[in-house]
Amino acid sequence: MDARKDPFEEYLREANPTRRERGYVWHTAIGLQAVDGLKTSDYLREVAARSVNGELTPRKARELIETYYQTNRRQETPQTEEADKVSARIAELLSERGFTLSPAQYLSIHRRLFEGIYSHAGKIRDYNLTKKEWVLNGDTVTYSGWSELRETLAYDISEEKSFSYEGLSMSEVIHHLAVFVTRLWQIHVFGEGNTRTTAVFLIQYLKSLGFDVTNDIFAENAWYFRNAMVRANYTHIEKGVQKTTEYMERFLRNLLLNEQLPLRNRALHIEFKEQKQDIGAQKQDIDTKKQDIESFFAAKLPKKSASNAVLLYQAFGVERIFGRQDVMTVLSVTASPASEILRKLTKAEMIEVMKGMGKGRYRFYPNLIL
The whole model's pTM is what? Predict the structure, then answer.
């Protein structure tokens, strides 16, 4: 395999779930190095490709990388060595099934990722810190004070552990997850490696909640993921900037619902202004699309049902999974009418039942409106 090419693109489309999972794990592990401006070596990518093909277990792949740097350290820079070792360790961690929502798990992830790389691997920092951020025009997020780190970490994870997702719409679930992960990151428990540790912890947690996260969102948007956490923890009243989880929610919608929301880093900059002509063009596209949607449903459903279907389609699109409670919220109706519209849409073969996502979960068929 040519190491200069992306060895994972074909695996992410792979029908074989085991092979696709391995491709996702390595693609994510390598992509996450971008949050610290690191790049892996050709050798690491060759080892990763062999692991994806089933020739090497994640553990054996990690051992090969460790051995390589015992004898070939001078051939690579310290930055490349860090990227290679941490990538291999992330791949091994993401291949494991065990997970506990606890401070100990969070600390353990950092230790396993950075042992032998950072002297403080797995250790809580004992000093305060600031970091200049491009998206904040060189300003810094206010991180938790060093004397409160252990208690703050324990409190946030304890709150999440006791939280119930029962009865929440997917939008509510995603908002809550965005708040949780951005607060966890803001603690900044460690001197370095917080973003990669938080990403691995979040992926493992999402998998423990039953989500399928085998796509390329983390791998292709690692820098956006970090910047979204920065914007969720920064307020400057004089500049008119308020902290917001909007950007993290966009990231999570693409990750969990396979939506295709644009994730542009420039849009996270506190001085970003969208061009008026761009907004006008977008409005024209939306208006045209709305007319097509209305015509489609009107031709296949009674007037009232068609009107409701349009509202639901605009709210959920073809990627977002929804249930009766979501329909009740969008249409402002009670349970019985919501069930009836779901029945009609199912009978008309406009929505499909999503198996393995819990009882009563649906999605509009892909390519429903061409």
Answer: 0.72
